[in-house]
Each structure stands twice: as C-alpha cells, then as structure tokens.
Automatic annotation (TrEMBL):
Name the UniProt record assigns to this protein: Glycine betaine/carnitine transport binding protein GbuC
Organism: Oceanobacillus picturae
Gene3D superfamilies per UniProt: Glycine betaine-binding periplasmic protein, domain 2, Periplasmic binding protein-like II
Sorted UniProt keywords: Cell membrane, Membrane, Signal, Transport
CDD domains: PBP2_OpuAC_like
Length: 291
C-alpha cells in the first residue's frame, strides 16, 4: 500500500513540475510576443516610395521587429513622424521637403541619403519641339487650356509649382490629383498628340513608357533632388539596431527605377521585387546592417 501511495505521490509531483515548466514557457512566449516592438513606416502615394519601403520592412522583420505601413500624403506623413505615430519615411525629397524639416526639426531628422541625382520639374511631350523651357510656355498658355497638371495638394511640390506659375507670370492653373490621376490626364493628351504640361520626376516609369522631356527652369524653382531616409528622433534610442540599418541606407537611383518598372509595368508583387533586390545585393545589405 505504501508503495502505491509513494508511486501516486511521485506521479503527481512529476505532473506538477511539468505543468509549472509548461506554464513558465507559455508565459515567456507570451511576454516575448507582447514585447515585440512595432516600427511604423510612412508610405506616400508615389511609386518611388514602394521599393525602399518594402525592402526596409523585410530587413526590419528579419531583425525581429513587427512592421506596419501607414498610407498618407507627404504632409500627413511628416506630421505623423513629428508626433511619433510614424517612425520612418523612406522617401524624403530634398530640397523640396526642407519645409518639413524646418517645421518639425525638433522631433524628426534626416537619417541617411538613399540616392542623389533625382531630376524633377515640368514635363512636356517630345513632339513639342519648340518648348524646351518654362519660359517657352509664356504666351501659349491657351494651347494647354491654361492648365498644368500636378499631384495631390498635400505634397509640398504643389506649392513650388504655384510659385513657379506666379514667378514666370504664366496664365495657368494647377490641376491637382493623385499621381495616377495626373498621369491619366497627361496620357489622354499624349495619345492625341495634344499640348500638355505636367509634373514629372525620376525615378518613375513615365520616362520608360512615355516620349516626354523635362523642360529647363531658368529661375531655379526646381533643383535636382536628393532622396533621404527620415526618422523620428526617438528611434535611435528605442530601436538602436534598426536606426543603424537606416542610418547606413543607400540604394542607387537606377535600382529603384528598375524595381518600379517591375512592379508597375510587369505586375511583379512589390514584396517579391524587394526580396529579389536583397538576394542580389547581399554585400550591400550587410553593409547597411553594419556587418
């Protein structure tokens, strides 16, 4: 009888120990899940934002972070960065976005240069042989129905275009819409070989699929852009390894444009395109990771 009791007590003791061990393990797993830090990436409605954002998400997730994307126009993205609602923006265009740094510089920073040499300005069809500068538009505004197509009103470039219209004394009105809406308007005009002027920039597929040219801006409203990674200033302290990755960030403009073509023209999923770039540029990735 004693042996039976001892056996039962031993069995109960083993079950108790295993149960406690399992409970501790479950508790640790739950705590680990709860402690997984989330990094939020701001995403503007521009094709140039997609490739670097997708690459950053894959790398940050591989580092153990939970990554979310927040869609917003440029102005709202910078407001989110300043409040800490957004941690990172991979597509800051400078000097156009200097206005945001001046406004929110106490809480956001220019963390890295992604690439340089990004041309931007007013664009016309190549068949408009006599229009090679903004100055050439003066006096022929009626041929364009006195309209100049631009992107969404929340973008700081819309203010630059308004200043340009005033600075050159153009009798034109900027018509704002999404990037896709602007291009749809322009393509309808191009198909009929009608006069049209709109905002264009690289990297973008428009220069691959449309016969267009950037016209000269002698008054200097547009400058060749430098694209930068922008972060909330708290990120360096709250996620130092993520900040190190982003501070080392650099992807050539031609690579970004090539990825945009694959996503927009060849319908390859953005995440697949980003993973392919990572796989083909492991040395570059290791450099950004500080390895």
């Amino acid at each position: 009888m004693k042996k039976v009791l001892l056996g039962m007590i031993s069995a109960l003791f083993v079950m108790f120990v295993v149960g406690c061990s399992q409970q501790n393990e479950d508790s640790e797993n739950q705590t680990g899940a709860e402690e997984q830090q989330t990094i939020t990436l701001g995403v503007t409605p521009w094709t140039s934002t997609v490739p670097p954002t997708e690459i950053a998400q894959i790398l940050l997730e591989d580092m153990g972070y939970n990554v979310e994307q927040t869609q917003a126009d440029a102005g709202s993205t910078y407001i989110g960065l300043s409040r800490g609602d957004i941690d990172v923006f991979m597509d800051g265009w400078f000097p156009v976005h200097d206005v945001y740094i001046e406004k929110y510089g106490d809480s956001i920073e220019e963390t890295a240069v992604s690439y340089t040499g990004a041309d931007a300005g007013l664009v016309v069809p190549s068949y408009m042989e006599d229009v090679n500068s903004v100055e050439d538009l003066v006096g022929m505004e009626d041929q364009f129905n006195n309209e100049l197509y631009g992107i969404e009103e929340g973008a700081s470039v819309t203010g630059i275009i308004d200043d340009l219209i005033e600075g050159y004394g153009l009798d034109m009105e900027q018509v704002n819409s999404s990037e896709g809406g602007m291009l749809a308007q322009a393509m309808r005009k191009l198909e009929n070989e009608e006069p049209v002027v709109f905002y264009g920039w690289r990297p973008h597929t428009m220069f691959n699929k449309l016969d267009i040219k950037v016209i000269e801006d002698d008054k200097g409203f547009f400058e060749t852009a430098t694209v930068k990674v922008i972060t909330n200033k708290e990120l360096q302290e709250t996620a130092p390894d993520a900040y190190e990755l982003l501070s080392n960030w650099s992807i050539p403009l031609d690579d970004v444009e090539e990825m945009i073509v694959k996503i927009e023209e060849e319908d390859v999923p953005a995440k697949e395109v980003a993973q392919e770039w990572i796989d083909n540029n492991q040395d570059k990735v290791n450099e950004m990771l500080g390895k």
